[in-house]
Design brief:
By secondary structure, this protein is mainly α. Helix content is about 55%, strand content about 5%. It has 2 domains: about 190 residues, Fumarase/aspartase (N-terminal domain) (Fumarase C, Chain B, domain 1, Orthogonal Bundle); about 290 residues, Up-down Bundle (Fumarase C, Chain A, domain 2), CATH 1.20.200.10. The strands form 4 sheets. A 3-stranded antiparallel sheet has the order 4-6-7. Strands 1-2 form a two-stranded parallel sheet. Strands 3-5 form a two-stranded antiparallel sheet. Helix 1 links the parallel strand 1 and strand 2.
Length: about 500
């Protein structure tokens, strides 16, 4: 069980709850911190001095004082008006991550929310009730206002949710979770929506997925190097160490491990008139490794955010309530945009290797498009077309969202991060990369088939066996789309990594 202690969470906690359905509880220390913070807000709400979000309106309406008898209405109205998203619902795992992360901030005791607010949120998670959150609405400035408002609306018994695969009302959702609708106290509506939880949740999920995909990218690169009669000399440890980039070193180590004891590589180690391989082979560790380093930066940003109190205003232990800018999503927007660039380039260099495998003038003895009967048969020609289309889309997605600020709220919120949009397009780019690597996997495996009777390395042979369980080897043309889909599932499910690591040990 994951506990909200008020001191932050780990990325592994978020993955366990968002994808694994792990239960969550509020720890006693967090409950005490929330009680103390809520007491500060309650005292402030009874006083005459204006306090943003407690006795005033929001955004450019911050100078409008709200009468004491209407302050509960103020919080309800805020949630209702801000639940203004449009589009298809975002994925269940994203919404679960959002709810967990918002409860995490509240549990730190800087938001003025009572424990019952966090406990009601956790009840939704534990009952597998997922608020319906439309895709569009967040600009990533005052946090993910619209998406979080759609989550908060369900806590009031309004809005919509998914439970048991069915779309239900907010009131039905609370009944299924075994809790009653919340009556929001001072500041609690604002505390429920003023966070970076959507973009942070998506960044954490993306980083988790990319870590695995980068290891797969090293595996498919090694298989392509082998099938193209390339050399492993450029990946030598002492040579790579001359440029001490950590990601490059890890990627090169993976390539060496997958290519170890390859009879194909050994067959042309001496007497080959080629001085060096093309960049897409020789520089695989430099590109994949740079992506690893970008991932490391994003993971550090996410780790800091997981320890952060994200709200506005903040309720401080000395009784002050102060406005701040901690809700601004730019650290997460930059990290997501940076990863989208890295993802685009990992896919781009994989496509160049695939193209080389299919071109008889550059593949060192392989038949055109890896078809033994080219002419009547087109082989894997169109697989590369699909791969190229995915690469092209990822290049478009690599354009930064974080530079696209548009002012809102009558110019009070005059610079926004677009972090939600950056994280959304990163998720799309990762789906595309999975498919790009699946195409290289299919082509490289067939290239290795066509090198028989030369034996491939232990690692690549293990992967080829897994591929051949789902995808047939060389032969006459056949319907290719199901085979590419099967390869995509092998990449996505972790079967490729499981196979290679069972054969040669854990990859870096």
């Amino acid at each position: 069980m994951v506990q909200l202690t008020g001191t932050g969470l780990t990325a592994a906690d978020v993955i366990a709850v968002a994808r694994g359905g792990e239960e969550v509880e509020l720890a006693p220390d967090a409950r005490a911190a929330m009680d103390a913070s809520a007491a500060v807000v309650a005292r402030l709400a009874e006083g005459a001095e204006p306090a943003y979000g407690v006795s005033t309106g929001f955004g450019s309406l911050a100078n409008v004082t709200i009468a004491a008898e209407r302050r509960d209405e103020l919080q309800r109205a805020l949630v209702r008006s801000h639940a203004a998203g449009m589009g298809d619902p975002v994925e269940r795992e994203v919404v679960r991550a959002m709810i967990l992360l918002r409860a995490r901030t509240l549990a730190m005791g800087y938001s003025g929310a009572r424990p019952v607010v966090a406990e009601t949120m956790l009840a939704l998670l534990d009952a597998d009730v997922t608020p319906v959150v439309p895709e569009y609405g967040s600009l990533g400035a005052s946090g993910d206002l619209a998406p979080l408002a759609h989550c908060a609306l369900v806590l009031l018994g309004e809005g919509e949710a998914i439970a048991g695969g069915e779309r239900v009302t907010g009131a039905q959702a609370l009944e299924l979770a075994g809790v009653g609708p919340l009556t929001l106290g001072p500041k609690e509506g604002l505390a429920l929506i003023n966070g970076t939880d959507g973009m942070l949740g998506m960044l954490i999920l993306a980083a988790h997925d990319l870590e695995a995909l980068l290891r797969v990218a090293d595996v498919t690169a090694a298989m392509s190097v082998e099938a193209l009669m390339g050399t492993d000399r450029a990946f030598a440890e002492d040579l790579v160490a001359l440029r001490p980039q950590p990601g490059q070193a890890a990627s090169a180590a993976n390539l060496r491990r997958v290519l170890a004891e390859s009879a194909i590589v050994a067959s042309h180690r001496y007497g080959d008139d080629r001085v060096q391989d093309a960049y897409s082979l020789r520089c695989a560790p430099q590109v994949n490794g740079a992506a690893r380093d970008a991932l490391g930066h994003a993971e550090r940003v996410a780790a800091a955010e997981l320890r952060s109190a994200i709200d506005n205003p903040m309720v401080l232990p000395d009784g002050r309530i102060e406005s701040c800018g901690n809700f601004h999503g730019m650290p997460l927007a930059f990290a997501s945009d940076f990863l989208a660039i890295a993802v685009a380039e990992v896919g781009g260099i994989a496509e160049r290797r695939t193209d080389r495998l299919l071109d008889a003038s550059r593949s060192h003895g392989l038949p055109p498009f890896l078809s033994p009967d080219a002419g009547v048969n087109s082989g894997l020609m169109l697989a590369q077309y699909t791969q190229a289309a995915l690469v092209a889309e990822n290049r478009r997605l690599a354009g930064p969202a974080s530079t696209g600020s548009l002012p809102t709220s009558a110019m009070q919120e005059d610079h926004v991060s677009m972090g939600w949009a950056a994280a959304r397009k990163l998720r799309t780019a990762l789906r595309n990369l999975t498919r790009i690597l699946a195409v290289e996997l299919v082509c490289a495996a067939r290239g290795l088939d066509l090198r028989d009777p030369l034996e491939s390395a232990v690692g690549s042979a293990a992967v080829r066996r897994v591929v051949r369980e789902r995808v047939a080897g060389p032969g006459a043309d056949r319907w290719l789309a199901p085979e590419l889909a099967a390869a995509e599932e092998l990449v996505r499910s972790g079967a490729v990594l499981e196979a290679v690591e069972a054969a040669v040990g854990a990859l870096a």
